[in-house]
Design a protein that fits this description.
Helix content: 25-40%
Strand order of the largest sheet: 1-2-4-3
Shape: globular
Structural class: alpha+beta
Number of strands: 4
Oligomer: single chain
Strand content: 25-35%
Length: 80
């Protein structure tokens, strides 16, 4: 559970903007046998180097798969 908390927090931080009037963030959890997919969508982060920072390294350490898009992050954790 701690790995998922870290992963979701990291995904959210990639999508947070400093604009207070930004669109809300949405988290959708897809629970399947042996796997959990989490889709996080929100406003586009204006930081051009978001994928070059520590976030991909952190996500790689705590989830099995991830994909960072322009306004979404998908996380996948398999049951071990």
């Amino acid at each position: 559970m701690e790995d998922l908390r870290i992963a979701v927090g990291e995904a959210c931080s990639l999508l947070v903007t400093s604009d207070r009037d930004s669109a809300p963030m949405e988290l959708v959890f897809h629970i399947q046998p042996g796997r959990l997919d989490i889709d996080v969508t929100g406003p586009v982060d204006p930081r051009p180097t978001a994928e070059d920072g520590l976030s991909p390294q952190i996500l790689e350490a705590v989830v099995d798969e991830f994909d960072i898009g322009s306004n979404r992050v998908r996380l996948v954790k398999f049951r071990s």
